[in-house]
Design goal:
By secondary structure, the chain is of the alpha+beta class. It is 28% helix and 24% strand. The chain has ten helices and 16 strands. It has helices spanning 2-20, 24-32, 40-43, 80-86, 117-122, 130-136, 144-157, 172-183, 275-280, 304-308; strands spanning 61-62, 87-89, 98-103, 109-110, 164-169, 188-191, 194-196, 207-211, 215-217, 224-229, 237-242, 245-254, 259-267, 290-293, 299-303, 311-313. The strands form three sheets. Strands 2, 3, 7, 8, 9, 12, 13, 14 and 16 form a nine-stranded antiparallel sheet that branches. α2 (24-32) runs parallel beside α8 (172-183).
């Protein structure tokens, strides 16, 4: 009986240790960014129970309109309601302001977990490797999923805009290394939008939100790296940076009682933006910055030094 008890205890202990085991991706994060708290936008894409490849062979989903917003620069616009509910002039972002069109911060993409860098590098994420990528995820050429992957690959290969640097990350290790290189430090904050609801509250879709106080404004010209999760069976992030970006942490209170700690990014580089897009927002090119909130599963990386210099906005006007 004593022997049976000991065996049972050892099995339970092993199960607990396995449950609490740190994944290789978490280990890499801690080795490079020991002082950086991992946001849920990253943690949710780390699944230690998956096999080494991290491949998820299922359909991926994306909320309409939330892929790369190419229309900001040129081409046909989506519905005016979508533009006005997603983008706004910076002057409209101040405590007490109401986001009249309603917002939806819920996760916009359901896709795969992070692959290890070894697995991600086995097939390069580029146009030449597209047949291998589709075969790797059992995707039928010309299917909707295959066309989505092809679009992501093409977006990643597009030339950068003036003043912009970008990369597409197919592994967490690659993302960390590139962010550290762009920010020039390992003393970094990784920020993502967080929605706070009581357990009895179900997601409501678009909600009418009012901006609370204080807004935290990061110093203008701070180097920010924004990473957007893409709809892919492996975790792919489209990351870009420009010194013409400006970051904000914005507290919001919803009409449904929910609260949001939102990350907002404002673009000062609007001189070459789509004029029809700017007209919808009543913004003059190159004069007024255009802003948008990040959904829950997108990321804003900033140096801890810049974060320490953030100023609080408590009045009715967003200071310059």
């Amino acid at each position: 009986m004593a022997r049976l008890f000991i065996i049972s205890f050892v099995l339970v202990l092993a199960a607990v240790e396995a449950h609490d085991a740190v994944s290789p991706l978490e280990t890499y994060w801690l080795s490079v960014l020991p002082n950086t708290t991992m946001p849920n936008a990253i943690r949710n894409l780390i699944d230690p129970a998956m096999n080494n490849s991290g491949i998820v062979k299922h359909r991926v989903k994306v909320r309409e309109g939330m892929t790369q917003n190419i229309f900001i620069l040129s081409g046909a616009l989506p519905s005016p309601d979508y533009v006005r509910s997603t983008f706004f002039p910076r002057k409209d972002m101040h405590p007490g302001a109401q986001m009249n069109q309603g917002l939806n911060f819920d996760q916009t993409i359901i896709g795969g977990a992070f692959m290890s860098r070894t697995e991600a590098d086995r097939i390069k994420f580029c146009s030449d490797s597209l047949p291998q990528i589709l075969d790797n995820f059992s995707m039928v050429p010309d299917s909707d999923e295959a066309k989505q992957i092809e679009k992501i690959v093409k977006d990643c290969e597009e030339p950068t805009l003036i003043g912009e640097k970008k990369f597409c990350s197919t592994s967490l290790e690659f993302m960390i290394d590139n962010v550290v290189n762009l920010l020039g430090t390992t003393n970094i904050k990784a920020l993502s939008t967080t929605v706070i609801r009581s357990k009895s509250m179900a997601p409501q879709g678009k909600v009418l939100y009012t901006i609370a106080s204080p807004i935290k404004k990061l110093p203008y010209h701070s180097r920010l790296v924004v990473c957007h999760q893409e709809p892919s069976p492996q975790a792919v992030h489209y990351c870009h940076t420009n010194i013409a970006y400006e970051g904000f942490l914005v507290p919001l209170v919803g009409k449904d009682g929910s609260k949001v700690n939102a990350v907002a990014v404002c673009h000062h580089d609007t001189v070459n933006f789509n004029r029809f897009f700017l007209e919808l927002l009543n913004v003059e090119p190159g004069v007024e910055p255009v802003c948008h909130f990040l959904p829950e599963n997108h990321l804003l990386w900033v140096s801890s030094e810049a974060m320490s210099k953030a100023v609080d906005i408590i009045g009715s006007d967003c200071v310059a």
